[in-house]
């Protein structure tokens, strides 16, 4: 193992030990970071980089399957009960990465439920109602916890979407309760989660009155670090590599626009 680390650090036989140590430590950080990354996105978890479908004849969204939106994300989601009104649609996970300042982050994780076709309630159907349950968790070795939650939806006037966030699998300990008011472009939240939580259970419910529609709704999440401090060796190596690539991409994009 030590020999392998020396090779990864690009060391030659006879190189002074004191000059070799920094390189060896960095190689260990990179190897460890890669291992942690593989562990988070291992065989038991699937990448949901494109929307999965629900309803219809061949739905691709799977109950009780852990999903990640991105292999570098520290969050994953498990669907417990798929939307049961609206016939068909898709669920998309997305992650907007922003560098964390001072123990907080404006990184946003979205769970977007898009009905296709749009739900249309009629006199014949009467008021339509449905629900959608899932759990979301942050990696145990991550310093982050959930900071706040948000809800928005798109439809016509007389519909109602709620989002209740719980601290337990039995859906009994309520920590956040949001309701989207009627309107074409409503917004609920952000609602703070004051108790440090690494896993939450979410229940969305929705109703549509006759003559009205519901096209989609979206749950959003941000996170905080309760005890900001130096990253562990392996985490630092992984974070450094990721941030360097991100800065490189931003610079390349800016150069291309010029």
Order of helices and strands: HHEEEEEEEEEEEEEH
Number of strands: 13
Strand order in the largest sheet: 1-3-4-7-12-9-10
The first-to-last residue Cα distance is 46 Å
Secondary-structure-based class equals: alpha+beta
Shape: globular
The percentage helix is 10-25%
Determine the mean pLDDT: 73
Report on the biggest sheet: 7 strands, mixed
Question: What this model shows, in words?
Answer:
It is a single chain. With 258 residues, the protein is of the alpha+beta class. It folds into two domains: 2-40 and 230-257, no CATH class; 45-225, no CATH class. 22% of the residues lie in helices and 42% in strands. The chain contains three helices and 13 strands, in the order ααβββββββββββββα. It has helices at residues 2-8, 17-40, 233-257; strands at residues 45-47, 52-54, 66-68, 75-81, 89-96, 104-120, 128-138, 144-155, 159-166, 174-180, 187-192, 199-208, 213-225. A seven-stranded mixed beta sheet has the order 1-3-4-7-12-9-10, with no helix packed on it. Strands 2-5-6-13-8-11 form a six-stranded antiparallel beta sheet, with no helix packed on it. A hairpin with a 6-residue loop joins strand 3 and strand 4. Helix 1 crosses helix 2 and helix 2 (17-40) crosses helix 3 (233-257). The chain is globular. It starts with a helix and ends with a helix. The model is unreliable at 1-43 and 228-258 (pLDDT under 50).
């Amino acid at each position: 193992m030590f020999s392998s680390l020396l090779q990864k650090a690009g060391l030659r036989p006879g190189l002074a030990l004191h000059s070799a140590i920094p390189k060896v430590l960095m190689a260990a950080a990179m190897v460890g970071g890669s291992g942690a990354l593989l562990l988070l996105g291992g065989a038991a978890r699937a990448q949901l980089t494109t929307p999965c479908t629900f309803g219809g004849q061949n739905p691709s969204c799977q109950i009780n399957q852990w999903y990640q939106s991105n292999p570098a994300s520290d969050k994953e989601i498990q669907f417990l009960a798929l939307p049961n009104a609206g016939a068909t649609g898709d669920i998309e996970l997305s992650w907007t990465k922003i560098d964390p300042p001072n123990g907080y982050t404006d990184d946003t994780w979205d769970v977007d439920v898009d009905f296709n076709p749009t739900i249309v309630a009629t006199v014949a159907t009467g008021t339509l109602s449905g629900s959608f349950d899932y759990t979301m968790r942050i990696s145990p070795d991550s310093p982050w916890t959930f900071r706040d939650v948000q809800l928005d939806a798109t439809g016509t006037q007389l519909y109602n979407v709620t989002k209740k966030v719980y601290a337990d699998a039995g859906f009994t300990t309520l920590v956040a309760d949001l309701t989207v008011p009627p309107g074409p472009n409503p917004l609920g939240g952000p609602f703070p989660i004051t108790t440090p939580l690494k896993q939450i259970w979410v229940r969305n419910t929705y109703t549509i009155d006759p003559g009205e529609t519901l096209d989609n709704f979206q749950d959003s999440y941000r996170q905080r670090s309760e005890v900001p401090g130096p990253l562990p060796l392996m985490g630092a190596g992984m974070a450094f590599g990721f941030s360097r690539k991100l800065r490189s991409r931003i610079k390349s994009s800016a150069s291309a626009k010029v």
